[in-house]
Amino acid sequence: xxxxxxxxxxxxxxxxxxxxxxxxxxxxxxxxxxxxxxxxxxxxxxxxxxxxxxxxxxxxxxxxxxxxxxxxxxxxxxxxxxxxxxxxxxxxxxxxxxxxxxxxxxxxxxxxxxxxxxxxxxxxxxxxxxxxxxxxxxxxxxxxxxxxxxxxxxxxxxxxxxxxxxxxxxxxxxxxxxxxxxxxxxxxxxxxxxxxxxxxxxxxxxxxxxxxxxxxxxxxxxxxxxxxxxxxxxxxxxxxxxxxxxxxxxxxxxxxxxxxxxxxxxxxxxxxxxxxxxxxxxxxxxxxxxxxxxxxxxxxxxxxxxxxxxxxxxxxxxxxxxxxxxxxxxxxxxxxxxxxxxxxxxxxxxxxxxxxxxxxxxxxxxxxxxxxxxxxxxxxxxxxxxxxxxxxxxxxxxxxxxxxxxxxxxxx
Length: 412
Known about the structure:
By secondary structure, the chain is an all-alpha fold. It has helices at about 1-15, 20-45, 60-75, 75-85, 95-115, 125-130, 135-165, 170-195, 210-235, 240-275, 280-285, 295-315, 320-345, 360-390.
């Protein structure tokens, strides 16, 4: 216990050490997070009237981000499977970075749910009144918190073993790795069921919603990890092999192709049948009753995802410059399609036939940006702690406690 507490103390100290780029990045994220906190304080005082949500559109930017980030968290499994099932050594240490990102994503998910509640002080009443086991909300709370604990255990144990320069006991983490694989799929499946089980929202009443969620998650999540790994390789001494990035490219290509196919299947079903329940899809893709706020956004998302897929199919994306471009396009495109493009249209028109459009307010946007900044702050700190440990520069006997921590700073 004494060694573990000493390890935590050194990790906290090293998280404050870096070059000017590290300080500038952390300062920027801290400022955005504080602006978000101030905006949330305004929301606590004045209620959800500070947001663009109404009686007709009761879920907006907060739940859109929540849905997207659940998928980003589940994407860590795309690093775990090749390593622990197919024994790919190139991704072995990189699994930790994927799971650290999953931890940060789940924290952001829980924060978005909290700010969407309006009155978080009443959350205890919600816990006491769970309709177990029928309520999908109950299952969603369980799987999200369970997945957070699984990733914290796996990452924390592996990093601590590397710090102590001891071989991890397989019995203490391998079973949890395989549980986490199933759990990662379950967190996004349960989230999809939470939507598709709402009978009054025809846009979500689809059996392919859960597969669409998983396909989009396994596209955007690894794409973000690819960009993060290249930042790590560029600004630190940690080496990320090109083979690992190319393997992730293959995974992303297949997942994005499946996602686009499922989206096309949904569009065919909605528009070919011309049924009454296609009104929400009509509003999203072409506008309805003179309301068309989301039309340019969804077609922009489809265009970005299509371009990303075409780039991935051609050998040109073996060049990291073009690969990075395709990753950026699909991250933004899937956020639009899976976030605002999925959540908001389901409420338009309302069950009473009202067509009330939704537009996020400045305060709502600041809260969302603040949560994203806080999540990236957490991820940056976790990565900052992990790199010296994995590279062998921060171990139990590597640096005397009295030595300046500048010795552990990232290499220029």
